[in-house]
Design brief:
This protein has 11 helices and no strands. It is mainly α and 303 residues long. The two termini are 30 Å apart.
Length: 303
């Protein structure tokens, strides 16, 4: 009965948005002709699926194409790379939860705030050039990566019942705090004050969006295998973006007597790195505890 139910689930229609990825994964990783019945002790263990592997392959292929044919190889290309990694993180999260129809351990508040930060940042980078990467990827590729990341995030928020998420009622309050912080610390890289405010507010909202997820992870003390890819990619994306912006913080001193915008941006990105590392460490500790509590056979990670 266990094996037959697994076969039924495998033959079921894929969730919306996965059809093209599943078709490509079938070409890259064809199904063997023979049938292998796995041992009952290994049934239900999360591992890297063909769809996740296809997303990773597409990401690496896209990075290679952009680097060789679009990018000038400039240092500012790290911003585009971080945006692409964020997009991949949300795509992996959507694939995982759409396949399993489970989102336990994912903070709805964190995702909603990330969507708000996306909208504010895209409003700046699509219509104005002040905060775009200086290389050729800043013309179209950077914005496309953010649009794709926002699209994947919207799929996550709308594709599953909202009651399944771990809710948090502090979204409006945290977004308001982020906007106030942006208004108090925005730079002067654009002659339009609202452009500077939107970009800095997006940075602070994105930073504060990590608090509900870290709080939820600490509260649950449980690691879910299907979220391992999302955790790793999101943490690495924030690290890559922080490396660039912290290294060029002097650029924020334009037309200001004291570079408080640069220092505040550095502080925000450092908070992102610290919270992202804390999120990852708590996740790994919970995962290790689960493995030890189940004699090493309860959880299988391949990130």
């Amino acid at each position: 009965q266990i094996y037959s139910s697994a076969v039924v689930r495998r033959r079921a229609r894929p969730p919306p948005g996965l059809s093209s990825l599943l078709t490509l994964s079938d070409l890259l990783y064809p199904t063997p002709t023979h049938t292998h019945i796995p041992p009952l002790s290994t049934m239900g263990k999360p591992a890297v699926g063909r769809t996740e592997a296809t997303i990773y392959c597409c990401f690496l292929l896209l990075c290679g194409v952009v680097y060789h044919f679009v990018s000038d190889g400039a240092y500012s290309g790290l911003v585009t790379l971080a945006s692409a990694m964020h997009c991949m993180a949300f795509a992996l999260l959507y694939v995982a939860i759409a396949r399993r129809r489970v989102v336990t351990g994912v903070s709805l508040a964190s995702l909603q705030m990330a969507a708000a930060a996306y909208v504010m940042r895209l409003t700046v980078t699509i219509f104005f050039s002040a905060y775009r990467p200086a290389d050729s990827t800043g013309n179209h590729v950077y914005q496309l990566m953010d649009v794709a990341g926002l699209g994947a995030l919207v799929l996550v928020l709308t594709g599953l019942p909202r009651s399944d998420f771990e809710k948090d009622t502090a979204v409006a309050w945290l977004v308001g705090v982020g906007v106030v912080m942006g208004a108090a610390t925005y730079a002067q890289l654009s002659w339009r004050w609202y452009v500077n405010l939107l970009w800095m507010a997006a940075l602070w909202v994105d930073t504060l969006s990590m608090l509900p997820q870290v709080r939820l992870t600490a509260k649950m003390q449980v690691a879910h295998g299907y979220a391992a890819h999302y955790v790793a990619c999101a943490t690495l994306a924030r690290l890559v973006g922080s490396v660039f912006w912290i290294s060029v913080y002097d650029e924020f001193s334009y037309e200001v007597s004291w570079n408080y915008p640069g220092y505040s941006a550095c502080f925000a990105f450092l908070v992102q790195v610290v919270l992202g590392s804390d999120f990852l460490v708590r996740y790994l500790i919970a995962a290790t505890k689960q493995v030890l509590d189940n004699d090493g056979g309860a959880l299988c990670f391949a990130v």
